[in-house]
Amino acid sequence: MTHTPGPPPSCKERWTGEGDKCEMLSYVWKLLRARWRITWNNIWRASRRRKIGLFFAAFGLAALAAFLVFASWGILSLMRRPEVAQFVTPDLIRAVPVLFTSATFLAGLLTNFGALLQTLYLSGDMEFLLAAPVPARAVFVAKLIQAVLPNFLFMSLFNLPALIGLGLAQGYNVTYFVMLPVMLVLLILAGAGISAMGVMVVVRVVPARRVAEVLGLVGGVMGLLCSQSSQFMHLSGAEQSVSSTQMLALAGTATQFNTPYSPLAWPGRALVALGEGQWLLALLLVGVTVILTLGMFAVSLVASERLYITGWARTRSSATQHKVVRAEHRRATRDSAARQAGERQLFPAAFIAIVAKDWKLLMRDLRNYSQLITPIVFGVIYTFSLARGTQQIPASPIGRQVITYGGLGTALFVAWIFAARLALGGIGLEGKRYWLLKVAPLRPEVLLAAKFAVAYLPSLALGSVFLVAATFLGRSGVEALLYNWVALAGTVGALCAVYLAFGTVGANLTWEDPRQVTRGTTGCIGWIAGTVTAGIVAGVFSGFPLLTLLGVPAVLAQGLGLTVGLSLCAVALVAAFFGVRGRVALIGEA
Amino acid sequence: MNDTLIKTTGLVKRFGDKVAVNSVNLEVHAGEIFGFLGPNGAGKTTTIKMICGLLRPTAGSAVVGGFDIQQQPIAAKSILGYVPDEPMLYEKLSAREFLSFVADLYNVPPQRAEHRAEELLKLLDLTDDADNLIEGFSHGMRQKMTIAGALMHDPRVLVLDEPTVGLDPKSARLVKDILRQLAERGAAVFLSTHILEIAERMCDRIGIIDHGNLIAAGTVEQLRAGRADQSLEDIFLSLTGGAEYAEIAEVLA
Known about the structure:
Chain A is an all-alpha fold and about 600 residues long. Chain A is built from 22 helices and no strands.
């Protein structure tokens, strides 16, 4: 077999594919087809249970989309009724497509940043693709579509049925329905193009992995703040019923988005013009939208020529060089000396080493922060809610009991979320590095004890802080604080032991994302088991003191609570440890 | 004194219906470098993982330094150092922190551990990066870190799975020298490699595994018996399917 090589392609040819027999688009198609094949294989070769689950999920999503079409159609038809007509003017209905298309563009701009970062810079196939004679622009386009498609499909699940329903309710003509998906695709491509440029610029300054960690943190915190927004409103006293005046003001704000001078409004106005048969206006607005969106996408393509490959190559060559301060090393050396001097008899060196190592890993990976910040935010909200609530609780004996032991509930709630993250994922946190522990002369008890300490100590410490705060705000006494603290220490111990046991059995050592350190089913069962255990133990601790309402002396009631509660904790702890001890040797076996 | 530091007896590993390792019997003695060769998927890594206690054998036993790795794992692992085929390390630890962690796992006294870590970092040319997080290390640097970790407790038995992959020529030469020195000091070195030249030059004895079966074991001279003009490559290919390779070479020619 003979082969006569031609002249090597120039840099531009290498990038764009010009001068090559194969067009860039054909390469994009090939890359997307390969991605589809991978997705299809994941579905087709999945277990039967997963296939059935996927079928029902697809069926459920189709049913949801159909429901949304008919719901929006029905709701918008209802809005023509005179009793709601004062709120729902024709202008407001015309503004709905504008709101949806604007939201699609902005969502494409904001939500795709993380997905683009992952696919453009952190996917494992980049070296393979760039070593192959594939135009780099084709790689960029294929990766961009690959990143954007899941978000687009998810958004389309809601906005497409809603806008179809609106079209049906308004009696829009067929061009509206034809152009609707086209407009949404154009908007998402434009948003993603700008987002991709942002990613490319940011990655030139900050290493891609670091950006991913920061995004994980920001995303987690934003999600938490959104989910708790009603609680924040409640705390700030802003929670009130919405008046008709406010409804009208809200409707007015929505229509303000629909201004002819805002480029964001043009795609939505184009759709309305198409639907209402205003052909000249529709032609103008559709044309402007197409030019603008494709222009934005083209600009991102041109920018990617300069930024993408050089940026990617840079992330490979100048990987992060975080200097760990010398002081920390000196401190570690001092710690080692201290261990040698005294602590060694109390705790094995391997125990301390694993605890210290895990805390360092948890603190240094920003992706963990969003999960660890969650309980703290929850704790602050519920502690202040409790403090506000105490003012409304009558000064009866029962009310006093609620205030006294309510603090335990808040502290336990915070510690519970913290423990769930740290204990359930204790072994799984090792991931592909678990070989280091497995090959070391490490007793299963030492490993389990170390992982227990990694979860237990911070959970207890955080819970204690909130317990003290709740006790102070609720003006409960020192006696109640001590009782509650012992109850907290015991309950968190039982909770961590149960979570750790299930985390050991269901450890996922092949994770890429630290949120997937436990296998789904075992993690779910473990979570339920730990929560039930904590509920029973906490119920015993806070239940016995209620005997004082029946005239039992407080000391006796608390003594009974501590005896029974701590006994239950000890049983849970011992059962969990001995139940899972034999499984440690099997961790990491196929 | 029994100088056999690694002994496998009837070692078997099955994954479902597939037999990955089939009744492997081998011995590695003190002061010896044993090369473990075989085509891809022959069972090299599975055998190594069973010797190190990373996988439970379906049948048979692996004894390290006189201790059964399954029955007396702590005693066996205390004298064992392992370098895996992929250098998976804690990315958020610095090189120095990593070595300190490994030393603690193996109960190396802190002062000795610190001294040993500095020695190994210097030896492997990692001193300048000792306080950098491992996440910024190249593949070769990570490979050197796993080797340093395996040497922290001065093991009597060292098991290495493709130790020179990703290393530059200088580092590869250094690793070979370290292994030779360890063997001269009485350690048993068990290494798998695809580089036949390394096996031929470095190893005192060689074992060849194919489809899970140990099909040959001995010194290069013993393997060459009756075929004096053949290289180790020729012997390897004739034992493990050289005809197929010849056909492929013809097609590519």
